[in-house]
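MODEL INPUT / OUTPUT PAIR
PAIR INDEX: 1
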Amino acid sequence: MRITIVGCGTIGCKLARAADKMYEVKRIYLIDIVKEKAERLASQLNKAIVVESVEDELYHCDLVIEAARQDAAREILLKTASRGVDIMVTSVGALVGDDFREMIFEKAKSCDARIFIPSGALFGTDGLRAASNDELAQVSLEFTAGKGSLAHVEYLESNGVDVNKIDKPTEMFRGTARDAVKLFPRNVNIAATVAILGVGFDKTEVSIVFDPAADTNTYVLTVEGRFGKAVSKTSNVYAPDSPSTSNLSSLSAIAALKRIVRNEWAGI
């Protein structure tokens, strides 16, 4: 299999290093808006080369992996699905727009492409997926962010919020998943995954709390429906080079890639 990884940040780098060790992966194409980052990563791998754009090798590629940001994901999704090439999306908030999401899913279906969305930094998405086949009464996600996780969030800064001056647990946001993924695009992409799997962007409840004493990013997923009730709590260790990214996010993407290249689907 030949794969293209778009974005050489925390998740992209870990994915590329893992893919480089997979027998099933024969070639890795790397892309980053800062070309030097892609070149530096490629120099550390055996199977990787740097390309300028997704289109450069799309006819020779079996899977595109977006590990960049929401705006890049929207562009890559359309180009890739239209060519009938499979794509894995990590910036799931890119699918918040109902018309765009429906168009992309229909385009993928008509062009025989598959869209893969990893479970991300959260345990319990498998249960939510199963429970959604019957009536769901409530789906909520509580996110407690530790120090550094909410730094440089435009929404907070524009409202005069300086997280460095907060000395106790403080709620930063409460609302729908639709608003959460728009206002916190780097922090709660998992809310988009939960919304897609469950009751949608407008019915999924999200709260975001900043706790300066927390040393993990913690998610609590609560699901109620005809199946019963489930509560899943995940306390994530930060990625060393990116406090806004949980280590489990990278591990989830690696696990998804292994399932795809090996065609092994335990636990689906």
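PAIR INDEX: 2
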Amino acid sequence: MKSVFIAGATGYLGRFLCKEYQSRGWHVTALARNSSHHGDLAADRVIEAEATWPESLSGTMEGIDLVVSALGITRQTDGVGYWDVDYQANVNLMEEALHSQVARFVFVHVLNADRMEHVPLVAAKAAFVRKLQTSDIQSTVIAPTGYFSDMADFLTMAKAGRVWLFGNGQHRINPIHGADLAAAIFNAVEDGAAWANIGGPETLTQRDLARLCFDVLEKQPRITYLPDILRRLALRLLPRVAPRRIAGPAQFFLTAGGMNMTAPPSGTRRLADHFESLLVQERRSSNEPIGDDP
């Protein structure tokens, strides 16, 4: 039986990666930072360690065939930043993999990173990718368009009554569900790909995405288009006026929102169904009637 070590296992994508590899017959070792967050992981072994501390990783990859890292942070908290986690923690993982003679290292990166290296989150990831690609370990870099979980911000705006878009709303994206992305990653690695850009099955403009949110909510669309110069101005001001935990993710999403984020399609799951499931979960948690929902 082949063995995989999954870092970032308790995150959105990491949980789907664990489930995908286990369903394919692999022995799954999951790296978790906190014991309270891994109770439902599809893993044969869970290791509690801090990837930012290289000594805590010592010996954890003995007998491992493959390392898949979805490790990274969106909001900088607990005194650690992008260079501590997205770069250095992944370097620590890679060096332990090299020491343990792991055959391949897979890293989940960002689509269009070459156009966003001025964004701190992307700069840290890109620096790690360069180090990985010049190391002595075989590697696969995965660049997804965006996760379904990220699209929930549009649904939140629609629930508040209005979706705000910059420009004309015509930039395109084909986001992907975590389960579909996990399957696509498995296949890309099996094919020995060095790099894979991966998107979901449906391509939407930002305007389409906003309208979809209102359709799911059964509300009349209310969309306001802001001049794109305001987005560019916000990008210049954010690092100066906003706390790091807010400025970091905002810089990324505002930058990505100013370009097309599309890649070859993969998977079958639809964003509308994901939004519907989120609404059902909200109703259940608030004890509202769900009607005919299964």
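PAIR 2 NOTE: The CA atoms of residues 63 and 290 lie 48 Å apart.
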